[in-house]
Specification:
The protein is α/β, with parallel strands linked by helices. It folds into 2 domains: 7-139, Glycogen Phosphorylase B (Rossmann fold); 156-332, Rossmann fold (3-Layer(aba) Sandwich), CATH 3.40.50.2000. It is built from 14 helices and 12 strands. The chain has helices spanning 16-21, 23-32, 47-51, 69-73, 89-98, 129-139, 155-168, 191-202, 217-226, 242-250, 261-268, 282-285, 314-317, 321-332; strands at 7-11, 37-42, 58-61, 81-84, 102-106, 117-119, 174-178, 207-210, 233-235, 254-258, 273-277, 292-296. The strands form 2 sheets. Strands 3-2-1-4-5-6 form a 6-stranded parallel beta sheet. Strand 2 (37-42), helix 3 and strand 3 form a beta-alpha-beta unit. Helix 7 packs across helix 10. It starts with 6 loop residues before the first strand and ends with a helix. This is lipopolysaccharide heptosyltransferase II. Keywords: Glycosyltransferase, Transferase. One of its GO terms (cellular component) is cytosol. It catalyses: an L-alpha-D-Hep-(1->5)-[alpha-Kdo-(2->4)]-alpha-Kdo-(2->6)-lipid A + ADP-L-glycero-beta-D-manno-heptose = an L-alpha-D-Hep-(1->3)-L-alpha-D-Hep-(1->5)-[alpha-Kdo-(2->4)]-alpha-Kdo-(2->6)-lipid A + ADP + H(+).
């Protein structure tokens, strides 16, 4: 592509964690095309992430209504190129119908004819997800630099954090639990363990805030159900926007999470956390940077792609509360 004043649209991944792992791609794209107008094309729930990211010029939200789709495509025609980070056929089809002349991505999912520049994907099991995205730039003939995804909080998130703190009156010293995982329960440390950990943390006069989407509400209820003393544990699942969650995370002492979108969000905020891995491989999806302490015990059946463990969930059950609490004490000291 010409390095002049061109307009490049990047189709973002749909998952929160993958979207954050795509930020180094955008960082490199800005370095390669410093004068270009770079837009990000994303699902509505990801808007706060890209609004908080300074290297792009425009955030375009993918419409939920099929009826407005073709009218929406007219807005995309002034882009000269679209780079697809997702591997899906649907993302290539959307770019094709948009009329954008250059459509660039990996030759996956039978979408070769929809792309004008297609490249064979690298072996995904051998690469970190960040490097998987960066490899696309290498295929296009560019050198890439490794960088750590970085985000700042948003003003609307700060206001939301103030409103919630005023309502629920949690203390200044608190630890965030992110006990959910959008992919499925296989990636979740057991609720009973989170409850026991909360009990130990509260003995140190530190409170616990549980963060997550509405889908994580059942997990939060289980944690509270296992807790005999619920004082000092606040269930905020489903009550925050993504921007609000960012501010709550940033003001916490640390975060304890599964391999999830909130794990990557915490890392991008440069905030200390303990990340618990079980069925997934940290070599592929662990956050970049030095603010994350990873707890992971390799088992024979991992890594796997089960959403729900068909066995005894040994990869998570063997990570004991004492080990995680010791890591908490080490980080706080």
């Amino acid at each position: 592509m010409d390095k002049g004043k061109i307009r490049i649209l990047v189709r973002a991944p749909n998952w929160l964690g993958d979207a954050i792992m795509g930020l180094p791609f955008l960082e490199n794209l800005r370095y390669i095309y410093p004068q270009a107008h770079i837009g990000i094309w994303c699902k509505p729930h990801l808007r706060p992430i890209f609004k908080a990211y300074s290297k792009i010029d425009q955030v375009i939200i993918y419409p939920n209504s099929i009826l407005s789709l073709f009218r929406y495509f007219l807005k995309l025609r002034y882009f000269s190129a679209c780079i697809l980070l997702p591997n899906s056929f649907s993302s290539a089809l959307s770019a094709f119908f948009s009329g954008i002349p250059q459509r660039i991505g990996y030759a996956t999912d039978g979408r070769d004819l929809l792309l004008t520049q297609r490249y064979p994907p690298p072996e995904q099991e051998a690469l970190h997800q960040i490097d998987y995205y960066l490899h696309l730039l290498k295929c296009m003939g560019y050198e890439v630099k490794h960088c750590i995804p970085t985000l700042n909080t948003l003003p609307e998130g700060e206001e939301e954090e103030k409103r919630l703190r005023l309502k629920y009156q949690w203390q200044r010293d608190y630890i965030v639990f992110a006990p959910g995982a959008a992919y499925g329960s296989a990636k979740c440390w057991p609720a009973f363990y989170f409850a026991k950990l909360a009990k130990e943390i509260k003995k140190t006069a530190i409170e616990v805030l549980i963060l997550g989407s509405q889908k994580d509400k059942p997990m939060a209820k289980k944690i509270l159900g296992y807790s005999k003393d619920k004082k000092g544990i606040y269930d905020l699942t489903g009550l925050t926007s993504l921007a609000g969650a960012m501010s709550i995370i940033k003001k916490s002492m640390l975060v304890i999470s599964n391999d999830s979108g909130l794990m990557h969000l915490t890392a991008a905020l440069k905030h200390p956390q303990i990340a618990i891995f079980g069925p997934t491989n940290p070599k592929r999806t662990a956050p970049y940077g030095k603010t994350t302490k990873i707890i992971y015990h390799q088992v024979a059946c991992a890594p796997c792609k089960y959403r729900q463990c068909p066995k005894d969930h040994i990869c998570m059950h063997q990570i004991k509360v004492e080990e995680v609490f010791n890591a908490v004490q080490d980080l706080l000291s």
